[in-house]
Amino acid sequence: MGACYDGAGRPQRCLPVFENAAFGRLAEASHTCGSPPEDFCPHVGAQGAGTQCQRCDAANPRLHHNASYLTDFHSQDDSTWWQSPSMAFGVQYPTSVNITLRLGKAYEITYVRLKFHTSRPESFAIYKRSHAGGPWEPYQFYSASCQKTYGRPEGQYLRPGQDERVAFCTSEFSDISPLSGGNVAFSTLEGRPSAYNFEESPILQEWVTSTELLISLDRLNTFGDDIFKDPKVLQSYYYAVSDFSVGGRCKCNGHASECGPNEEGRLACRCQHNTTGADCQRCLPFFQDRPWARGTAEAANECLPCNCSGHSEECTFDRELFRSSGHGGRCLHCRDHTAGPHCERCQENFYRWNPWAPCQPCDCHPAGSLRLQCDDSGTCVCKPTVTGWKCDRCLSGFHSLSEGGCRPCTCNPAGSLGTCDPHSGRCPCKQNVEGNLCDRCRPGTFNLQPHNPAGCSSCFCYGHSKVCAAAAQFRAHYILSNFRQEKFLGDQRFSYGQLLTLTFRAPPGGSPPPVQLRLEGAGLALTLQPSSSSGPQDAGQVGEVQLGFQLQETSEDAGPPLPPFHFQRLLANLTALRIGASGQSPSPSGQLFLTEVRLTSAQRGTSPPAPWVETCSCPRGYTGQFCESCAPGYKRETPRGGPYASCVPCTCNQHGTCDPNTGICLCGHHTEGPSCERCLPGFYGNPFTGHADDCQPCPCPGQSACTTLPENGEVVCTHCPPGQRVVLLSIFKVARL
Ligand SMILES: [Ca+2]
């Protein structure tokens, strides 16, 4: 019963020692004899003594009978007693004499015993307080007149279903005899059925609990001789108690084996089993895993610590949590970014690799993640177009991460070299392509095509224009070999950027032959390597191998490097096309046969379209689809200089147009000469002023030739017929008008 833990350290029910709780505690009495000093006369027959009166004097240490004698050491032979004033001082019903005993804390009381020095009272009652400051509750009534004095029936029995916390009234101990040494003992549990199941009866546990006891002495027993008011007789009636005992234990609810003064000097249990409070009636703050309960013989019911996983030292009891999980301690203020009733998990939007690791923020990108919570590895769940551990990057092919995720790249596949920049969405363009989406040819180029490494082809226009577009009226056309070479020579501009395909019949196991193509023309030469090869390469089979050469300066390993204009110039006047196989024979087991040469070109028509043919926008002075001609009124700067030569205005003094190739003027207005710089014979005037009437017919007979005299402007006929004279122009002019 004593130790709160067994030899193995397991908790067990423990109780403070059973004691006389009144012993040494000073009781208070409402009335005590001796102030002023008075005589009292014990009854004849008491203790066999004679009728000798004695004196009670509160001021005299040898003659006082104050309340300290109630709870001092009791000796049968030499007893001390407390005594009230006698009936001569008015002590009798309805005046009560009260004795109060404060226990200082809750006790569980087994009995209350009074040993009277005189005879027992006719009526007295015991009251208690269950807790400090509570009401006085009746505990037991002793009376020869229960109904009359206390309004209660006499007897000690309970009706079925009745509250067991009921005070009985009994007459058993109210006789006047014995005249001295009468003993009354009240057993708190006697006559109460649940006493046999005390540990399971909170009602009786409360019934025996008491912090303060009150003995109310209400009516003295007399022989009836007091009615004559004889002072000697009245002095023989008084209350006197030699011992007041209270058997019980300090109430610690099974969780302490000792009681003693606490820090404030108040009596309290020395609580074990993680309990606290004066009566160990609560669990310690961090021991809220299950509800507090009294320790019983079967179960210590010790308080259990909260499980806060080491992240909190504070918790409260949560009934709902206890009901659902069996552990009611809800931890408070979880540290280290933990959460949950036991700080057993990470806070929202935090994670850890294992239960022992510290919680770390997920840091999921707010725009790129579907939610801010990551998994145990810190990996966030990304929106469909987003990637990365924290969803902070766009997937390849997407850009500009924002609230809606990433936007798809919209690069023009023909013009771009890959996917767009994940931040700006800008596409990487091929050499001749521009625009954020690589969907426009740069100035000077046209015909955006996926197979074109530069994206767009350079305008040719014989070097006269930088502005061109795809022509509408051309269709694809293939020049096939029957080994008549001329077909592949001459003007092959329409093959610019297109494929020349060589087909070989290869022996079994043959590898692509190391073939290169050499182009010559316009004083230029160029070597191209195959840009593609195809055909079955299965070992053991005779198959066709096709090698494609892209006729473009940007082709693989084109050498020497040639600007696009010159490459086209070469094609425009192709004089030789040589196919060369270098190195060893492709296979020791057989020969390689060239079976077909196929050149993609274009000719007039509509289908399939050939957008690689240009239509140029020509500057002033040029005309033709490719600016290959001089416009009317223009001539080659170099006569017969060909399409590459510049066109300049005709120099015909505005008397006619000129031949675009030779520049020779077709003169009108009666002029002649390479630049119409002369009047025709028979005409005169100044042809350099540029008017239609610059040259006038000579006013000579038969319209013969004439001339103007430079010194005075006179016109004189130079071929006058014989016998006619010169006529002055001025006169003639007047005459003519
Ligand atoms: Ca005593």
TrEMBL record:
Gene3D superfamilies: Galactose-binding domain-like, Laminin. The keyword Nuclease does not apply. InterPro entries: Laminin/Netrin_ECM, Laminin_IV, Laminin_N, LE_dom, LMN_ATRN_NET-like_EGF. GO terms for cellular component: basement membrane; extracellular region. Residues 430-615 form the Laminin IV type A domain. It is found in: Secreted, Extracellular space, Extracellular matrix, Basement membrane. Residues 10-249 form the Laminin N-terminal domain. Transmembrane segments: none annotated. Residues 250-305, 306-361, 362-408, 409-458, 650-697 form the Laminin EGF-like domain. SMART domains: EGF_Lam (SM00180), LamB (SM00281), LamNT (SM00136). One of its GO terms (biological process) is animal organ morphogenesis. Disulfide bonds join 252-269, 271-280, 334-343, 362-374, 382-391, 429-438, 667-676. Keywords: Basement membrane, Disulfide bond, Extracellular matrix, Glycoprotein, Laminin EGF-like domain, Repeat, Secreted, Signal. Binding to cells via a high affinity receptor, laminin is thought to mediate the attachment, migration and organization of cells into tissues during embryonic development by interacting with other extracellular matrix components. This is Laminin subunit gamma-3. It comes from Camelus dromedarius. The lineage of its organism: Eukaryota, Metazoa, Chordata, Craniata, Vertebrata.
